[in-house]
Design goal:
Helix content: over 70%
CATH architecture of the largest domain: Orthogonal Bundle
Radius of gyration: 29 Å
Oligomer: single chain
Shape: globular
CATH superfamily of the largest domain: MetI-like
CATH class of the largest domain: Mainly Alpha
Number of strands: 0
Number of domains: 4
Largest sheet: none
Order of helices and strands: HHHHHHHHHHHHHHHHHHHHHHHHH
Strand content: under 5%
Length: 589
């Protein structure tokens, strides 16, 4: 504990970094989620397809895979643009920026579904009434759709925030000095990793405990953020061409001013120092800052020319702003798709993928074995725990609640570190029979996954038991069944059927969470991809390939549980009810 106190500043600074990452990421995710929801509900088939591809791909690939792909692959693309296209210098991507952008991009897909469901929950008649009243689309959203949508979305926002907060632990993998990485370094330096990772777990529990009640309190308040936006923009969010071009002209003048100021500084340096000679061409074209400004000004000039062209065509009735934006969006989408296809055809190293494919297959079997064994053991353990959670006896219900609260409120990565790094340093464990259970990274991962999925599955089955209609239980007792028979014949079979949709999500989360075992040297799917990337420095070939494997596995799990729901939840589906056709009776003459 004394060592923990000595490293308190490091843990506090890491905790602040974690909060910064979480807050900035959720802001990006909210913006992307709102845009994605509008695209999914758009009348444009292209917008709907783009949003569907975005949400499907992001939710089908583990967060850690996307984070490594964006961190390493994004650095390759950024430096290609900086050096080869703009003639600049090498840019080192900040782990903080990469972590924030990646987490925001990932959870933008989840917020998309949250906002889409919230918008669909608003009665369509209210929107139609607002449009009939003469409101524009912006006014309808700010005054009618938005205020009600945000209230419907708050429960989903709360859940996404809690999951996002725990996902921030993954940024330690790419080198960001957050609370997990600082605890890892401090624990290794004093050889007490268990104490430090336990402190990290407590910090995350404090985060979730503090923020969850605040978000739940917001659900009960009559919040009106979109009314504030409506007043701020005076009910008009239309982009006016003249104001926009004036703003760009000002930016151009500011850019020219800075270039001129830089040239004057070079002249002053030449006048002061006798060893430096002023060369106007070198000052303008060799300075990296000036090169960046010149190319930025060129891009702004192209934007102004495009706006004037659109305005000219619009004044002549040849093109409207609405169609101009559609054409621009379609051109951008086509450019991205064609660029990706060009990369796959001409730049993607298919020979390397074929050469390393047997390694991926080996990693696939290890991933499937680890996830399947964890899920089976966790399901068996969760059945008695779920029954205990429904007990009114605090001596039975209390310890189980503490267990589930801890493992559901802390990141899976921290739990894995507690077992792999923490328990392995304990001398009495090394000298006891318990060492046989944690002397291998695969065994440590198995224990961490079993404990984690058991906690989640316990709460899933508990909720399903409590949702079982009381009439079924009363009928079983009236038939003379004992309490044990009621559970084994009525409650648990019914609860397991009702829990299928939610448990399917848990299986997918467990599959995606299994990617973290690559951090502790287990050669699963992502472990193989990291080995390939470290040997050949081919982030796209490595992480896109492993992402494709995870996508196929995710789609397979979704299909499996959809078929199970059709079989075992048929009695709960309303669309299976027969529809009686009524013949129209002719009106009397």
């Amino acid at each position: 504990m004394l060592n923990l106190y000595e490293y308190r500043d490091s843990l506090i600074s890491g905790a602040l970094v974690t909060i910064e990452v979480a807050v900035l990421s959720v802001l990006i995710a909210l913006v992307l989620g709102l845009a994605g929801a509008f695209m999914k509900l758009s009348k444009s088939p292209i917008a709907r397809q783009v949003a569907m591809v975005y949400t499907t791909l992001v939710r089908g690939v583990p967060d850690l895979v996307l984070m490594l792909l964006i961190f390493f692959g994004g650095q390759v693309v950024l430096n290609w643009l900086a050096i080869d296209v703009f003639g600049g210098e090498y840019i080192d991507v900040s782990p903080f920026v990469a972590g924030v952008l990646t987490i925001g991009f990932i959870y933008g897909a989840y917020f998309t579904e949250t906002f889409r469901g919230a918008m669909l929950a608003v009665p369509q008649g209210q929107v139609e009434a607002a449009e009939a009243y003469g409101m524009s689309r912006t006014q309808v959203f700010l005054n009618v759709l938005g205020p009600q949508m945000i209230r419907h979305a708050l429960p989903g926002i709360n859940n996404n925030w809690l999951v996002l907060m725990k996902t921030t632990a993954l940024v330690s993998v790419i080198g960001l000095a957050d609370v997990v990485r600082n605890a890892d370094l401090a624990g290794k330096s004093v050889r007490e990793p268990f104490i430090f990772f336990l402190a990290v777990a407590v910090i995350y529990l404090l985060f979730t405990t503090a923020t969850s009640p605040a978000l739940q309190a917001l659900e009960k308040l009559q919040i009106k953020p979109f009314h504030l936006l409506s007043r701020l923009f005076h009910y008009d969010l239309t982009i006016r061409t003249e104001s926009f071009t004036k703003s760009i002209r000002r930016i151009l003048l500011i850019g020219i001013f800075f270039v001129g100021l830089n040239v004057l500084l070079d002249i002053g340096l030449a006048l002061i120092s006798t060893e430096v000679e002023f060369d106007l061409g070198q000052s303008l074209y060799s300075n990296t800052f000036n090169i960046l400004i010149f190319k930025s000004l060129l891009g702004l000039a192209l934007i102004i020319a495009t706006i004037y062209l659109v305005q000219l065509l619009s004044d002549k009735g040849l093109l409207t702003l609405k169609w101009a934006l559609r054409i621009l969006a379609f051109a951008l989408l086509a450019f991205m798709v064609l660029g990706f296809l060009y990369f796959l055809i001409f730049s993607f190293d298919w020979a390397l993928v074929g050469e390393t494919f047997p390694l991926y297959v080996k990693g696939l079997w290890l991933t499937l074995a680890l996830v399947s064994a964890s899920l089976v053991i966790g399901l068996v353990l969760s059945l008695p725990l779920a029954v205990g959670r429904t007990s009114s006896n605090p001596l039975i219900n209390g310890p189980i609640y503490v267990y589930t609260y801890f493992f559901r409120g802390t990141p899976l990565l921290v739990q894995l570190y507690l077992i792999y790094y923490g328990l392995s340093q304990s001398q009495w464990i090394r000298e006891s029979f318990l060492w046989n259970f944690i002397d291998d990274a695969w065994k440590c991962a198995m224990i961490a996954f079993v404990l984690n999925t058991t906690a989640y599955t316990t709460e899933i089955i508990r909720g399903a038991i409590q949702r079982t209609p009381q009439g079924e239980v009363e009928a079983a007792r009236a038939a003379g069944m004992s309490q044990r028979q009621v559970y084994t014949r009525i409650l648990l079979p019914s609860a397991l059927r009702r829990a299928l949709p939610t448990y399917g999500n848990e299986v997918i989360f467990m599959l995606h969470g299994s990617a973290i075992v690559s951090i502790i040297t287990v050669e699963d799917l992502l472990g193989v991809a990291r080995i390939v990337n470290s040997r050949y420095y081919t982030p796209y070939e490595a992480f896109l390939t492993v992402g494709a494997f995870y996508l196929v596995l995710t789609f397979g799990i979704v299909y499996l549980f959809r078929e199970l729901e059709k079989r075992y939840l048929r009695h709960l589906r309303r669309d299976d009810a027969p529809v009686q056709k009524v013949k129209a009776v002719p009106a009397p003459a």
